[in-house]
Amino acid sequence: MIWVAHIISLLYVDQIPSQSKSRKQWDMEAAYKLLFDVRHLSDGAETSLPAVSTSKSTLIAFVAYRLLKLIAYWLLTVHLFTPLIPLVFGPVEPWEFDQYAQTYLRRLPMFEATEPVTLRETLIRVVFTFRWIWLSYVDIDAAHTFLSIIFVGLLRLDSPAEWPPMFGSPTEAFTIRRYWGKFWHRLVHKPYLSLAKVISGKLCLGSFGCGTEKIFLAFLIFFISGLAHAMVSLQRGKLVEAVDDVAFYCINFFVMVVEGLILEFARPARWLVPRWGWKTIGYAWVFIFWFWAAPKWSYPEVHREMLKETERQNRALGLGLFTGSLGGN
Fold first, then answer.
1. How many Å apart are CA 229 and CA 237, to the nearest integer?
2. Which of 196, 224, 215 is nearest to 260 (CA)?
3. Tens digits of per-residue pLDDT, 55-80?
4. How far apart are CA 47 and CA 19, in angstroms?
5. Could you tell me the pLDDT band of residue 20, with boundaries at 50, 70 and 90?
């Protein structure tokens, strides 16, 4: 979906190939670079990409660092983050991730819920939030790292400069907006922005002012992201998950809008608290948001997988008892 959006952006929206006057008509290397430069690292029709020729020592260092990175990802994911919840809390049951567990705020003691939250549930949710962020991060960055080794170290089609880090620093994520804009990958931004500009142009939103158009473009980027995830869910035959995917990304956008309004309202009082204090408050806010949002989005999948695993274990146990009884006879 991202690559399709990139091709549409490249050929029909931005029309970068037709704008270039300096490239040859049949420049296959330039075509290859444009075709797979989804992040538009060489933005602009006349921008030349970094040279592919790189010293042997640089290539060795590039590949070695990324191999070590992949090994570290594998060790941490397999031996720590994947089994993290059972390691910390002992055996967990499917019902601990069911529809009641997906809801948290409405089950706080102050609301006198029939099934109020428990300390164990809260702690599981805390650990799950960190685990969810890590696994989401590693899934993407490990793939990016592996492909960089292939295209730079083995095929020698690209230079190290053409494979910059996919993610920013997590220390920059002290607001939800900065989480998406500074820390999280920007792989979809350029392609989806081009599609959003087409829609905005058709609706003539530019006439409402630059600010209104920017807000609408940001909304469309998140909405298209939700649709892309929803298409995957629909392909797997999961309609409810598809709706949740779109809702998840739209909620993120609206939370950022509210967050921006609050920050603007609080601007005159910023001098009362040092910068590190605001950052600390921001980190806490970002964690609280994901503490609320991540389980809502991911618990259903965890619940289903645990039910499937329980069913497999029960079948294996039943088969064992059956074969044992036959052997006894």
1. 13
2. 215
3. 889 999 999 999 999 999 999 999 99
4. 11
5. low
- 295 neighbors 104 (Cβ within 8 angstroms): yes
Q: How many H-runs (helices) and E-runs (strands) does the chain carry?
A: 12, 0
Q: Residue 26 is which amino acid? A: W
Report the amino acid identity of residue 235. Q
Q: Are 181 and 174 in contact (CB under 8 A)?
A: no
Q: 3-class DSSP state for residue 19?
A: helix
Q: Say how far apart CA 128 and CA 92 lie, in whole Å.
A: 12
3-state secondary structure of 305: helix
Q: What whole-number distance in Å separates Cα of residue 202 and Cα of residue 143?
A: 36
Long-range contacts of range 59-67, CB-CB < 8 Å, 24 or more positions apart?
59/152, 59/153, 59/156, 59/160, 62/148, 62/152, 62/153, 62/160, 63/149, 63/152, 63/153, 66/145, 66/146, 66/148, 66/149, 66/153, 67/149
- Smallest CA-to-CA distance from 42 within 23, 56, 55 is with 23
Q: How confident is the model at residue 45 (pLDDT cuts 50, 70, 90)?
A: very low
Neighbours of 132 (CB within 10 A): 19
CB atoms closer than 10 angstroms to residue 27? 14
Query: pLDDT exceeding 90 applies to what percent of the chain?
Result: 54
Residue in 272, 248, 305 with CA at minimum distance from that of residue 96: 305
Q: Are 26 and 210 in contact (CB under 8 A)?
A: no
Shortest CA distance to 158 belongs to which of 244, 36, 272, 260? 36
Q: What sign for the dihedral angle of Cα 275, 276, 281, 283?
A: positive
pTM of the model: 0.86
Of residues 9, 15, 1, 16, the one with CA closest to residue 49: 16
DSSP for 211-231, written as a single string: HHHHHHHHHHHHHHHHHHHHH
**Amino acid symbol at 94:** P
Q: What is the mean pLDDT of the chain?
A: 87
> How far is the C-alpha of 239 from the C-alpha of 230, rounded, in Å?
8
